[in-house]
Amino acid sequence: MAMKIRLARGGSKKRPFYRIVAADSRMPRDGRYIEKLGTYNPLLPKDSEDRVKMNVERIQHWMSHGAQVTDRVSRMLESAGVIEKKQRANPKKGEPHKKARDRAEEKAAKAAEAASSPEPEEKPVESEPAAEASVDDTPAESAPDAEAPAAKEEAKTE
C-alpha cells in the first residue's frame, strides 16, 4: 500500500482549511485517511504559530514506514527543520516574460537617448513653431467643415 503524507482540503468556499494527513495514495484528496497529523490554515498571517501545526513525531513515524511526502508538505517540514532542504531546479523562476522584457528594453533605450542628448532645451524650441503651424492649419480645415453642413441644408430644402 503506497502511503502519502498530504493535505486534505476542508473549509467552505473561498475559505480553505487543510488537514495534514497520512493516507493511501489511491484515496481521494479529501477522502478517507488513516491518521490526522496536523493542520494548515493559509488565511492566517505567515508569522502566526497557528498557521501550521504538525505532530512531527507521527510524521517521522510514517516517513520511516515508507510514506512519501507531497511537495507542499515537504516545504512545511523544511521550514520547521524536520527534513533538509531540497535543491529545486526552476531555471526560469522570476524571469520576466517577453512583453515585460520589451518594455524594459524600451525604457533603457529612452533613458540612453535622454542621457546622450547634450541640450534638452533645443527640443522645446523646435516644437513651438510646429505648434504654431498646427494652429494656422486648424482654421483652414474647419472652414470647409462649416460650409459642408450649410450646403447639405440647402440641398434638403430643394
Treating each run of at least 4 consecutive H or I residues as one helix, how many helices? Answer: 4
Architecture of the domain at 3-80, according to CATH? 2-Layer Sandwich
What's the number of extended β-strand segments?
5
Low-confidence stretches: none
* Element-by-element helix/strand order: EEEEHEHHH
User: What gap, in angstroms, lies between the N and C termini?
Assistant: 96 Å
The CATH superfamily name of the domain at 3-80 is Ribosomal protein S16
Helix percent reads 40-55%
Query: In percent terms, what proportion of residues is strand?
Result: 15-25%
Helix/strand structural class: alpha+beta
**How much is the radius of gyration in Å?**
34 Å
CATH topology of the domain at 3-80: S16 Ribosomal Protein, Chain: A
Q: Tell me about the largest β-sheet.
A: 5 strands, mixed
Write up what this structure looks like.
The longest helix is centred in the last third of the chain and has 36 residues, at 122-157. This protein has helices at residues 56-64, 71-80, 98-116, 122-157, and strands at residues 3-12, 15-24, 35-40, 52-54, 68-69. It has a five-stranded mixed sheet. The protein contains four helices and five strands, in the order ββββαβααα.
Task: Name a few traits of the molecule.
5 strands, S16 Ribosomal Protein, Chain: A, 158 residues, alpha+beta, five-stranded mixed sheet, elongated
